[in-house]
Design brief:
With about 600 residues, the protein is an alpha+beta fold. Helix 2 packs across helix 6 and helix 8 packs parallel to helix 10. The relative contact order is 0.10.
Length: about 600
């Protein structure tokens, strides 16, 4: 394979989620199967290399147990493909010694001396231990040595640091004859084999990847000249893939920034810029003012529609749908998603009716009397549209079912007990027949005030702060956990609008700010009650809910389409690579066309 063919293949699979990673693996697969570079009839066959390596092995120091060993795993000791002409099949133990590192006791690990190379130092850990022990030379690793980490995070490395003592969870793999085996080729083979082992489920832990298995790995050995050609070609193609990956990363970052900027501008609380300001949305999509400059009032609805219509073109991955959904919610609760109708009953009048309704309900026998709550923000601080108003959350709640936590100590599950709703049960749709836990009736009876009737909004207040759910009607009679707060708005409000608000950044950000950190994040009911709620006229609440439902359905379709596309791309890349690796195929022309 050359760079031109790799680019042709990349063009076919470029948008697959892990295209570059799969192509890297593909290049290694081609290399170890003899399909990356052409075979040269004049190359000395690998069988001759093995004769000289065997002679060098006979003179090398012995390590481990001698004698014939039982085959440990056919999937590791056999090759699943035919070898090209001039290649030979051998075992790793015939090419290298697998030398154990040193196991240390804690007192032997010091703050100075010779560095002790542990598996963590090969990956992410910068913390080093040291030793002053004088050991045999085999226990040291020098720059350029081939090593293999065999614990849970396992794989080959060519050490690029100073002289170190390597730890017990690392093997050193000194070649018997460096003049007859290219170390870089062996390193590439071990990279490919490690990935294959991981994909097959082998070697996940220290129990599975043993020295005995390592020594018996089947190695496809090319002629020495071909080994070097393979290494050179792999390096060239990997460098090309690095550039392709960097270009893709930059492209995705630019697209993400553009999408994020578009969404942020739509939800900004300040005035939108004029149409001819830098970065403004196109003026032709707005209504414009007499001067030809689009104002916030005139242009925003059209600009919002334009942005929501064009954002799907920028949205190419399923994970990008989440911020789009959140933007829709944020627009909704700022009055920027649907038009205001001046003939709607003002929200201030609605609040008066709500207050009257709450007074009537509070007068019922047994209802606890509570004074109205002052919100933590004034209406003018919220930048509300005309005919909107705001009030504290508590002043919108049915006084017969104030915002409350549930059962503090539920106890064990009880057969035929009372269904018990915990944070993990919270969802907005697709509810099971009942929650997974039940509690004793005598425990639940002490918390009758938080017994569910069905239809309440449920809010997580411990741990996953802000997580929301709806209590379906078939959960009536269940009770809630201490980590869950019940919210029952008065019947003059559109409950679904209130739920949209609670999902918006305004409410979620408030919850985050209001969270107290004890053993785990905890949200106080008193602070929930003071949450300022921007309230549209009731008719507009209904229009907002309908619009959000329609846009969320659009998001659902877009997300499903992107997921399907990703699946199709993944299947395409698998099919192309499988075809190229088919034992009967000697080239990748078909895959690249």
């Amino acid at each position: 394979m050359n760079a031109e063919r790799l680019l042709a293949l990349y063009e076919q699979v470029a948008e697959a989620p892990d295209a570059v990673a799969r192509l890297r693996r593909f290049v290694l697969d081609l290399g170890v199967r003899g399909k990356l570079v052409p075979q040269e009839p004049g190359d000395e066959p690998a069988s001759e290399l093995l004769k000289r390596i065997a002679a060098a092995r006979a003179d090398a120091p012995k390590s481990g147990r001698n004698g014939k060993k039982k085959l440990v795993d056919p999937s590791l000791t056999d090759l699943a493909f035919d070898l090209p002409g001039g290649w030979s099949r051998t075992r790793l133990s015939e090419l290298v010694r697998v030398v154990n590192g040193r196991a240390y006791k804690k007192p032997e690990l010091l703050d100075e001396g010779t560095p002790v190379l542990r598996v963590g130092n090969l990956f992410t850990s910068d913390h080093w231990y040291y030793s002053n022990l004088q050991l045999e030379d085999d226990k040291y690793c020098d720059k350029g040595d081939l090593i293999y980490a065999w614990s849970a995070s396992f794989g080959p490395f060519i050490w690029d640091g100073p002289r170190v003592i390597y730890h017990y969870h690392i093997w050193k793999l000194p070649l018997f004859s460096e003049s007859d085996l290219d170390k870089q080729f062996l390193y590439l083979f071990l990279q490919q084999k490690t990935r294959e082992i991981k994909d097959a489920g082998h070697g996940i832990s220290m129990v599975h990847m043993t020295k005995e298995k390592m020594e018996q790995l089947a190695v496809p050995l090319p002629p020495l000249a071909e080994q070097r050609r393979i290494v050179a070609q792999v390096e060239e193609l990997m460098a090309l893939l690095d550039r392709l990956e960097a270009a893709r990363t930059a492209r995705e970052a630019t697209r993400d920034r553009l999408t994020a900027a578009s969404l942020a501008r739509l939800t900004a609380s300040d005035t939108m810029p004029d149409a001819d300001a830098p970065g403004a949305l196109p003026a032709e999509v707005g209504t414009g003012s007499a001067s030809g400059k689009a104002t916030n009032k005139d242009s925003f609805p059209a600009n919002a529609r334009f942005a929501l219509a064009t954002l799907p073109a920028l949205t190419t991955r399923p994970d990008q749908i989440k911020p789009l959904r959140q933007t829709i919610l944020n627009l909704a609760v700022r009055g920027k998603l649907v038009d205001q109708d001046p003939t709607d009953e003002p929200a201030s009048d609605l609040l008066k009716r709500i207050a009257k309704r709450r007074r009537g309900l509070a007068a019922e026998e047994g209802v606890r009397k509570k004074k109205p709550v002052e919100p933590l923000a004034e209406e003018d601080e919220l930048g509300l549209p005309a005919n909107w108003a705001a009030d504290a959350f508590a002043n919108l709640i049915d006084p017969r079912a104030t915002i409350s936590y549930g059962v503090l100590v539920p106890g064990p599950d009880v057969d035929e007990g009372v269904p018990f709703v915990r944070a993990q049960d919270l969802t907005l749709a697709d509810h099971p027949a009942k929650p997974s836990k039940t509690i004793a009736p005598e425990v639940e009876a002490k918390y009758a005030r938080t017994r569910l009737s069905g239809g309440e909004i449920l809010l997580c207040v411990v741990g996953s702060i802000g997580k929301l759910g709806i209590a379906p009607q078939h959960w009536a009679g269940a009770n809630i956990a201490r980590a869950v707060a019940r919210i029952a708005p008065v019947d003059l409000l559109d409950r679904d609008y209130l739920l949209l608000f609670l999902r918006s950044d305004r409410a979620q950000g408030y919850f985050e700010e209001a969270t107290r950190t004890l053993a785990q994040p905890t949200l106080n009911v008193g602070l929930i009650e003071k949450l300022p709620v921007p309230l549209p006229p009731l008719a507009e609440q209904h229009r907002i809910v309908a619009k959000v439902d329609a846009l969320m359905a659009l998001c659902d379709r877009l997300e499903a389409a992107l997921t399907t596309t990703d699946t199709t791309r993944a299947r395409l890349i698998e099919a192309l690579l499988h075809e190229a690796l088919d034992p009967a195929t000697n080239a990748i022309t078909e895959a690249a066309e």
